[in-house]
Write a structure and sequence with these properties.
single chain; five-stranded mixed sheet; 34% helix; 2 helices; four-stranded mixed sheet; elongated; 2 domains; 9 strands
Length: 152
């Protein structure tokens, strides 16, 4: 083998040894300190990333339905719109509230409405006057989808 290939392999081997040493040190610290740091890291990934990965990858979960008249609410949480279908009467104001740490939008697929970017804690609203079904997505995370159904 030429010297360049040997140098690359040696560098990769050295990085692997450093990586394993760091993981070993963390595991040893966790065992000696008995503070469950590694368990907490796993829990953080399970709790904090599950909904995000589901939403980003399109595994949105079950369909949910709600109804409202006058004023309706849609929560944005765990990379989902809740409820996924909201049945309303004409003239109802729908308020979307983002409870996720990531920004989201509620953007009509037909372009008829857009809340704009909603950061955590932000809310946006749209009044629905005419009957019909209005499918919408998050413009930032298009796998998030839902619909507003305005009755007669």
């Amino acid at each position: 083998m030429n010297q360049t290939v040997l140098a690359i392999l040696a560098s990769l081997g050295g990085l692997a040894v450093i990586f394993l040493a760091v993981i070993g040190a963390i595991a040893t610290y966790d065992a000696l300190a008995d503070n469950n740091m590694m368990d907490d890291m796993g829990g953080m990934m399970d709790d904090g990333m599950d909904g995000m990965m589901d939403g980003m990858m399109g595994g949105g979960g079950p369909e949910t339905t709600g109804s409202a008249s006058g004023r309706g609410e849609v929560r944005i949480e765990s990379f989902r719109f809740e409820p996924t279908t909201l049945n309303v009467t004409p003239g109802t104001v729908i308020v979307w509230t983002n409870q996720d740490s990531a920004p989201h939008t509620a953007t009509a697929k037909d372009g008829s409405f857009d809340t704009g970017r909603l950061d955590k804690g932000d809310a946006g609203n749209v009044t629905f006057e005419k009957p019909g079904t209005f499918a919408y997505i998050c413009d930032i995370h298009p796998s998030m989808d839902a619909r507003i159904v305005v009755g007669q």
